[in-house]
């Protein structure tokens, strides 16, 4: 059932190289309630934005602003209450899990393993959606997994055990698994959460390079204002379930707007890279 | 990088099959009546050549009519429980899950007993009556795993200690019901020891072996088609879904098939414990946690373990016998405690 659509995509594969819109989020809303008869505990109001291949979109906002919900909707794990999300013209929520995994890779905050695994085993898991049931990994799968590890600079971690490497190294291996899925769309949920500053910069730098090289569309949820300013092409600014603004960092990073959203005094200046830079002021 | 190949899988299974063969030979030789290896080899050869009439009558009867059927039963029961345990461990993301610990075996025993009680009141043909017990055991197993799953789930997440406690409490509750039924009802229901500890000493009709073998191949085969999905499920259901696993489908297939395996095993041997816990654990230490390897090696390992345990059960206090479940519990319970203590919280 998923085979025919996968074939259709691989034949010629025009979408991968066009500069057309790849991801289109159209008036998407969502409501969560613990019990259908009760008022919703959380709502996401109609949100729209578009992204092209090679673009990095940062979803930015304080806690409980609806960032992760928006990411889940884009991944197809949740169905929107209204509106739709299209990836190359397909509604993400309606794809089978297998087809979805061939097109969308999700990097979660934490990946906990029940039994120890080596990094290469972990990265090969990214090939699952591309192989048939019970098939042993092909030469191609192995080459793709090796390339994915090399692309994130983790080729030397291949034979290490996942529970014996540092947080930054682990994050890179998890990213390599996502690359092994050969997706069109790469979604990351607070990938820098447990990383030190060097590893954070390193990760976003890799993302920037990978998005350009492989023409991925990258959507990353974060509350690191300055990393988003430095690496994102577009910022989606969220607050309490509402999408306030969508645009390039230079247009979004205004002092009054950010102070209101993040509820803290701050200043915005132009950084040395030509992108805005935020300094949070300690005195209130 | 060393991805799994068919050759390596075959080699690993071949080694275990050899060990199983040795275990079977040992099990044939030892027992209340000693049999020399020479006589055993001569009889096996004659059997293979079709000269069954020449099999020496002094212990031919014991070998072919008593020991071999019992060994076959041990193989099927061991393989079934071990594959069921491996599956429950992956699905519930709990290395301590096992049909016995989770109460699924007790549930299956209760289902089997209820079907035996109900059988006289249903006017069924003898063939259908023979299938009634495994069916009852299967329904008992699936009802129990469903109950334990919900009892062990908090806010939509499986909580590993709550799950184990739910299993242990359910098992003890069901055991009490079994005790109650056994004390109030008389008739041909076998004893407490059979249902609660497990026992392989009761001979079965020949067609039941075929039924068991076919059921095992069907259920274990169904589980094996989800082997790579189970690998991904170890990292959690959400992550597995994002990697392309159809989680609800896999969960349904594996719960039904694992309950069927438990039901089949319990309906003929009672609740033999800890096989599904120890064997997958040992196989994981030796061969790693890839289910494409783990499922077949656990099946063979489970067969070896129960053949071995039953040989001990028959010989240690000969001419009396222990229930095989007592032997597996003696080895399994301490290992369970060890794994529980070692587990990172």
Structure overview:
The complex is a heterodimer of chains A (284) and B (345). With 284 residues, chain A is an alpha/beta fold. Chain A contains ten helices and twelve strands. Chain A has a single domain (2-280), classed as P-loop containing nucleotide triphosphate hydrolases (Rossmann fold, 3-Layer(aba) Sandwich), CATH 3.40.50. In chain A, the strands form three sheets. In chain A, strands 6-7-8-3-9-10 form a six-stranded mixed sheet, sandwiched between helices. A four-stranded antiparallel sheet of chain A has the order 2-1-4-5, covered by helices on one side. Chain A has a two-stranded antiparallel ribbon with strand order 11-12. In chain A, helix 5 packs across helix 6. The longest helix of chain A has 18 residues, at 197-214. Chain A is globular. Chain A starts with a helix and ends with a strand. Mean pLDDT of chain A is 84; it is low at 1-18. Chain B has 345 residues and is mainly alpha-helical. Chain B has a single domain (71-342), classed as ABC transporter involved in vitamin B12 uptake, BtuC (Orthogonal Bundle), CATH 1.10.3470.10. Chain B is 74% helix and 1% strand. Chain B has helices spanning 6-29, 37-48, 57-91, 104-118, 126-151, 160-184, 192-197, 206-224, 227-233, 237-242, 247-269, 275-287, 291-315, 324-342; strands at 153-154, 157-158. Chain B has a two-stranded antiparallel sheet with strand order 1-2. In chain B, helix 3 packs antiparallel against helix 11 (247-269), helix 3 packs across helix 12 and helix 4 packs across helix 11 (247-269). The longest helix of chain B is centred in the first third of the chain and has 35 residues, at 57-91. Chain B is globular, with a radius of gyration of 20 Å. Chains A and B meet through helix 3, strand 6, helix 4 and helix 5 of A and helix 9 and helix 10 of B.
């Amino acid at each position: 059932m998923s085979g025919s659509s996968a074939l259709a995509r691989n034949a010629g594969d025009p979408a991968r190289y066009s500069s057309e819109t790849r991801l289109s989020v159209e008036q998407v809303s969502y409501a969560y309630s613990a019990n259908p008869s009760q008022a919703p505990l959380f709502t996401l109001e109609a949100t729209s934005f578009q992204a092209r291949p090679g673009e990095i979109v940062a979803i930015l906002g304080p806690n409980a602003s609806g960032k992760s919900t928006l990411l889940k909707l884009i991944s197809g794990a949740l169905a929107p209450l209204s509106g739709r999300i299209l990836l190359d013209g397909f509604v993400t929520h309606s794809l089978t899990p297998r087809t979805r995994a061939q097109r969308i890779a999700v990097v979660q905050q934490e990946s906990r393993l029940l039994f120890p695994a080596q990094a290469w085993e972990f990265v090969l898991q990214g090939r699952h959606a591309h192989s048939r049931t019970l098939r042993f990994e092909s030469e191609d799968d192995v080459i793709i997994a090796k390339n994915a590890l090399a692309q994130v600079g983790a080729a030397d971690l291949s034979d290490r055990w996942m529970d014996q490497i540092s947080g930054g190294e682990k994050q890179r291996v998890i990213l390599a698994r996502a690359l092994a899925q050969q997706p069109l769309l790469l979604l990351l949920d607070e990938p820098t959460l447990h990383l030190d500053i060097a590893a954070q910069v390193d990760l976003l730098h890799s993302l920037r390079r990978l998005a350009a090289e492989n023409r991925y569309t990258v959507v990353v949820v974060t509350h690191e204002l300055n990393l988003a300013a430095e690496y994102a092409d577009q910022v989606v600014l969220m607050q309490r379930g509402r999408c306030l603004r969508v645009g390039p960092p230079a247009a979004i990073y205004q002092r009054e707007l950010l102070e209101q959203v993040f509820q803290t005094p701050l200043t915005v200046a132009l950084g040395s890279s030509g992108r805005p830079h935020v300094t949070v002021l300690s005195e209130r | 990088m060393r991805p799994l190949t068919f050759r390596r899988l075959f080699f690993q299974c071949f080694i275990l099959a050899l060990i199983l063969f040795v275990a079977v030979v040992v099990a044939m030789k030892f027992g209340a009546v000693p049999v020399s290896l020479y006589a055993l080899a001569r009889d096996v050869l004659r059997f293979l050549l079709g000269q069954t009439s020449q099999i020496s009558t002094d212990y031919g009867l014991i070998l072919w009519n008593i020991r071999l059927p019992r060994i076959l039963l041990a193989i099927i029961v061991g393989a079934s429980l071990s594959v069921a345990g491996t599956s429950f461990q992956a699905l519930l993301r709990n290395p301590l899950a096992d049909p016995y610990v989770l109460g699924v075996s007790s549930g299956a025993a209760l289902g089997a007993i209820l079907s035996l009680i109900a059988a006289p009141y249903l006017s069924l043909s003898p063939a259908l009556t023979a299938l009634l017990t495994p069916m009852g055991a299967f329904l008992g197993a699936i009802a129990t795993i469903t109950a334990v799953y919900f009892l062990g789930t908090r806010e939509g997440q499986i909580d590993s200690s709550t799950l184990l406690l739910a299993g242990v409490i359910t098992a003890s509750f069901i055991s009490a019901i079994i005790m109650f039924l056994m004390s109030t009802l008389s008739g041909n229901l076998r004893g407490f020891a059979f249902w609660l500890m497990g026992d392989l000493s009761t001979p079965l009709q020949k067609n039941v072996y075929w039924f068991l073998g076919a059921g095992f191949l069907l259920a274990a085969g169904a589980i094996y088609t989800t082997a790579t999905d189970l690998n991904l499920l170890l990292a959690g259901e959400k992550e597995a879904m994002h990697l392309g696993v159809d989680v609800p489908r896999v969960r349904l297939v594996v719960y039904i098939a694992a309950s069927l395996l438990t039901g089949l095993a319990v309906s003929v041997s009672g609740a033999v414990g800890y096989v599904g816990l120890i064997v997958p654990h040992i196989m994981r230490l030796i061969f790693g946690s890839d289910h494409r390897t783990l499922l077949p090696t656990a099946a063979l390992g489970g067969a070896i373990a129960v053949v071995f345990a039953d040989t001990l059960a028959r010989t240690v206090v000969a001419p009396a016998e222990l229930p095989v479940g007592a032997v597996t519990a003696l080895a399994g319970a301490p290992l369970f405690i060890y794994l529980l203590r070692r587990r990172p919280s």
